[in-house]
Write a structure and sequence with these properties.
It comes from Exidia glandulosa HHB12029. This is F-box domain-containing protein. This protein is α/β, with parallel strands linked by helices. The chain contains 7 helices and 13 strands. The chain folds into 2 domains: 1-162, Leucine-rich repeat, LRR (right-handed beta-alpha superhelix), CATH 3.80.10; 181-287, no CATH class. It has helices at residues 24-32, 92-98, 132-138, 152-158, 203-218, 249-253, 256-265; strands at residues 8-11, 22-23, 40-47, 55-56, 62-69, 77-78, 84-87, 108-111, 144-147, 164-166, 189-192, 237-240, 270-272. Strand 7 (84-87), helix 2 (92-98) and strand 8 form a beta-alpha-beta unit. Helix 5 packs parallel to helix 7. The protein is elongated and about 65 Å long.
Length: 287
């Protein structure tokens, strides 16, 4: 049976028993049974098995793989049109195999959630279960990245053509750009996690980190054009995930995000709420 017009397949598994896992041999069968039209593949739980042939998906554009159990063999991928790769925290083994693929059209890469496998040893290129070898080979192709626990300086140094960078909450718990030594010329949009204006544990350290972040974005932007010490000379917008602008004069006056937004608005960078509305200075603080 051949399904020549299928464009999207989603394999949902519970992970409660081996029978619920989609194994590599099934994936190989899927790839070789005429699924040349397949453009999007989502697998929630993938189990490895010995294979002798490459996994060829000639028209696959988007690939999302959840939990991957590495047991035997290493799959070889042929993904000439892949543009988007999205892995979950248990994707270290699958990444170890995909790193060897050419991926000439890859543009978007995300690792969602708690990613211990790509954090602790991320600086060590001998650790093949980290994200660093993948970024070292494919980073120059990427224009948008979200990796929850990878050091920002690693991402920015290996992805020189990055235009959109999505930071996680953990990445802004400390000033994320303090260790940057070289400006990043291509970044135009920075997406930040939700900011909690009130009721945050250890609030002062939290506010200090966000304050340092916005100050770092303003460096080198005092003149009509960014100076040599500007970290992101092409940056034009910062979007705050899940954020809504305050509407009453009292809330506006005491809102830290308003203060930060007004500070970098004057430097040529607009700050957007979750609904893409930008903040425009309207109320003076301290009144």
């Amino acid at each position: 049976m051949r399904f020549s017009n299928v464009r999207r397949v989603a394999v949902e598994t519970t992970g409660l028993a081996d029978v619920n896992k989609f194994d590599i041999n099934s994936l190989l069968l899927l790839a070789g049974t005429a699924w040349a039209s397949l453009e999007q593949l989502e697998i929630r739980s993938l189990q490895n098995a010995p294979i002798s042939s490459p996994l060829r998906f000639p028209n696959l554009v988007r690939l999302q793989i959840g939990r991957f159990e590495h047991r035997l063999g290493t799959p070889v991928w042929d993904l000439p049109k892949l543009e988007e790769l999205n892995l979950d925290p248990a994707g270290g083994s699958i990444l170890r195999s995909i790193v060897h693929a050419e991926l000439p059209r890859l543009r978007y890469f995300a690792v969602e959630g708690e990613t211990g496998w790509c954090y602790g040893g991320v600086r060590d290129d001998r650790n093949e279960d980290t994200v660093y070898p993948f970024l070292r080979k494919h980073g120059s192709k990427l224009v948008e990245v979200r990796i929850s626990k990878c050091l920002p300086e690693i991402i920015l140094s290996t992805c020189p053509n990055l235009r959109v960078y999505r930071l996680s909450e953990g990445q802004v718990s400390h000033p994320p750009f303090d260790n940057m030594t070289t400006p990043h010329a291509s970044l135009v949009s920075l997406v930040l996690p939700q900011y909690y204006n009130y009721g945050r544990p250890r609030e002062q350290g939290y506010i200090t980190a966000w304050d340092a972040l916005f100050k770092s974005l303003a460096i080198g932007r005092d003149g009509p054009t960014p100076s040599a010490d500007c970290l992101f000379p092409s940056l034009v917008e910062v979007k705050i995930w899940g954020w809504k602008w305050p509407t009453t004069p009292q809330d506006i006056q005491h809102n830290k995000m308003v203060k930060w937004a007004e500070g970098i608005h004057s430097k040529g960078i607009r700050v957007l709420a979750h609904d893409n509305t930008s903040w425009r200075p309207r109320v003076k603080h301290g009144r």
